[in-house]
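WARN no homologs supplied; continuing
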Amino acid sequence: MIYWLLFALPGLLLGLWAQMRVKSAFSKFSRVGTASGITGAQAARMILDHYGLYDVRIEEAKGFLSDHYDPRKKVLRLSPDVGRSPSIAAVGVAAHEAGHALQHAKGYAPLQLRTSLVPAVQFGSWLGPLIFMAGFLLQAFTGSPFGYQIAVIGLVLFALTAVFSIITLPVELDASRRAKKELIAVGVLSSGELQGVKTTLNAAALTYVAAAIAAIGQVLYYAFLLSGRRR
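OK structure emitted
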């Protein structure tokens, strides 16, 4: 338990702090309206149309901050708090998601790599730990080298989640960079209004950093357990 906390606690604590910052920033700048009166959905549409991405649909998603871009269906889904609101926070989040659509249209390599990894990560994230524990316990109780080999396979499968989290970082940071640039370019915001967007998106970026640290910590913990059994 102590070793698990050693590897897992940094990511967990950073994740909790990041979530608090996101909620605080979004709540604060959700109360600050845009001078243009443009909503999140309208801002996203303006950015997409500016680049001729008329085939990318905008739909409403359920839930709080459930906003995302689906590259397989070319659909940008915005939560009601973002799509319907003419606030600084809303247009920032919407523009960020539109930034992913721009990445997709321009063939941004990290996004392509992340998208291609989704099926493998979905498979490895739940099956990897099961395979690891099966192999780990088999080796622990029988001393069989076959158990070690099975555990390694599980570790490699689960490690895909860490790889995915690391690749996600440049994808998200680039989407935020595009968002801040395009909100000015298409006339949604003035330069004086951009600070609220920066604060909101920077807070959101911390959640991805925390997720990467947490995933790496979990992989290192499994590797630590395995190295101990190997010795």
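The chain has one domain: 2-230.
OK
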